[in-house]
User: What shape does this take?
Amino acid sequence: MSIHSFPSKLLENAVFEFAKLPGIGKKTALRLVLHLLKQDAKEVNSFGNAIIQLRNEIKFCTECHNISDSEICDICSNPSREKQTVCVVESIRDVMAIENTQQYKGVYHVLGGIISPMDGIGPKDLNIDSLEQKIAEGNIKEIILALSTTLEGDTTNYYIFKRIGKYPIEVTTIARGVSIGDELEYTDEITLGRSILNRVQFEPSVAR
Assistant: This one.
């Protein structure tokens, strides 16, 4: 039987949906679906309900835009975090990567992407206005620009620096222990942790 020949429309529909996931081809999707069919119905229902509940009930923190089960995430609501230090990251995955290092004690601001004209993503598509508003309130002492060390990441760093340069705050960036062109989520925890701890003053010329 070829991958395009299904004995059941239900099977075909399930494979089609799994194949929409990143990095999942139709063959892998078929293996996953057939695996689920071997499982107890209760386990499969639990799997399906977890996905549905995630999509319907997940929230985005009103403070930092990280995903959360409540209006304010566990990091922002933690009284032991240093609220005057804000680490600006591209995505939720980057928050998880930095948290795994256990080296950072401040809070975050998730942009939701980086400036990429090729992909049609501009500053207005990102959570930059809310970052500036947060800084304008006067409670922030340091902004850490922790975006991927790519051309798009550096362009976004430079844009943010120009936006917030008028405020009396320190602007730093992660040390270049993270190789040029690397994305944070793929950087090992020790290297990333050291890059956070050994952060340096942001130099606008880097991003030009």
